[in-house]
Amino acid sequence: MAVGEQRGEPEIGAGGEPRRFHSGGLADALPNVDDMLKVGDAMFGPFEWQRFDMLVLPPSFNGCPKNSQMIFLTPATINVDTEVAHELAHPWTRNIITSNTIPWINEEFTAYAERRIVAIVQGEERAALNMGLGWRGLKRMMERCKDNLELTILEPDMAGIDPDDMLLWPIKHLIGRPAFDEFLKKYVVTFKFQSIDTETFLEFLKANVPGVENQVNLEEWIEGTGIPPDAMEPDSATYRKICTLAAEFKSGRIPSEDEVADWGGEEWELYLQKLSTDAETSQVNALDELYKLPESCDNEVKVAFLHLAIPMGCRCSFNKVGNSLKLVGRTKYLRLNRQGANTT
Questions:
Q1: d(CA 162, CA 138)
Q2: Could you tell me if 142 and 152 are in contact, meaning their C-beta atoms sit under 8 angstroms apart?
Q3: How distant, in Å, are the alpha carbons of 5, 169, 194, 306, 329 from that of 19?
Q4: Is 45 within 8 Å of 185 (Cβ atoms)?
Q5: What is the pTM of this model?
Q6: Could you list the pLDDT tens digit for every one of the 344 residues in the chain?
Q7: How many Å apart are CA 81 and CA 122, to the nearest integer?
Q8: Cα angle: 126, vertex 131, 134; to 5 degrees
Q9: What is the chain's Cα-based Rg?
Q10: CA–CA separation, 321 vs 327, rounded Å?
Q11: Tens of pLDDT, residues 32-81
């Protein structure tokens, strides 16, 4: 049972503490969710679950379990439209169709559907930026598993990685986006309310994309280790600009206020992830002084900064890690903060 305020429309709703319904919070999230739901209906077929509700839990909760009609958010994720888009995609790509063995099929299609929804609702640049963050996350996971590369094998276990949607992108580029969108819709219709395994998916893929196995190394993707050579790093004007600015940080250049004037959380997150840990501590402190990133209301930005600053010995950030660990219960943030703290 939850006690709080509830707002919404006939098909969507949101609940939480009254203070969560502010500009930049649930008040802004609801219209976007309505647009995303309409895009999902058009792309993947009718939404079968009658309603889609969001419940904002206290920050100590982990949040975001996969429920067909309701997602449980933490305050840290309210401002992250792509997080909501990802969970909104799950009713089609995880709940209508499930994997009866391992979850990689679910996550591949969910990540792709999330970015298609974001591309239509918020634009191609935003979707490409989100994919860039996914690429960076995949690279970090591979680095973490470098001494146990068997953990990066999708089949049979996928114990060590989240595959993002990197396998589907070479297929999409092979046949084109319109054809792949039709393939995705047919996939949902064909396996609606069923559980499938990898073999079933591959048979469906080869039947509907003839010759795909000669153009995309499916065996390497599913049974090989590491990132296959035909994986595609994202590319967009925004992505390239941020990568360039991050490379210039090592030589002492901090982006000007004009250069970051239109940045949101994802731009800052990518920038911070791309920064070299060989930079001087004074540079990181200067970045903190100018933009107050550890005080960001976007927890992705806050944690990305602390994960950079703490291993470099930026002592002024030490107490901010403690505060973050006390206030946020989501596992991904706790893990990153603890990893940073353990290096000191």
A1: 7
A2: yes
A3: 9, 40, 41, 26, 19
A4: yes
A5: 0.83
A6: 666 777 777 778 877 777 776 655 566 666 688 888 899 999 998 888 888 888 877 777 766 656 778 888 776 665 566 778 888 888 888 888 887 766 778 888 888 999 999 999 989 998 988 888 888 888 888 888 888 888 788 765 554 455 667 889 899 999 999 999 999 999 999 999 999 988 999 999 999 999 999 999 999 988 888 888 888 888 889 999 999 999 999 888 999 999 999 998 889 999 999 998 788 889 999 999 999 998 887 888 888 898 888 888 887 777 777 777 776 666 666 665 555 555 55
A7: 9
A8: 135
A9: 21
A10: 10
A11: 888 888 999 999 988 888 888 888 777 777 666 567 788 887 766 655 66
**Concatenated DSSP letters for 54-100?**
EEE--TTS------SSEEEE-GGGTT-HHHHHHHHHHIIIIIIEEES
CA end-to-end span of the chain, whole Å? 41
Helix (H, G, I), strand (E, B) or coil at 204: helix
Contacts 24+ apart (CB under 8 A), 142-151: 142/226, 142/227, 149/225, 149/226, 150/225
Cα–Cα distance, 184 to 44 (Å, whole number): 7
Tokens of 89: 């995609």
**Burial level of 2, CB count in 10 A (0-12/13-18/19+)?**
exposed
Token pair 């004037």 is found at 261
Residue type for position 305: F
**CA 310 – CA 287 distance, rounded (Å):** 14
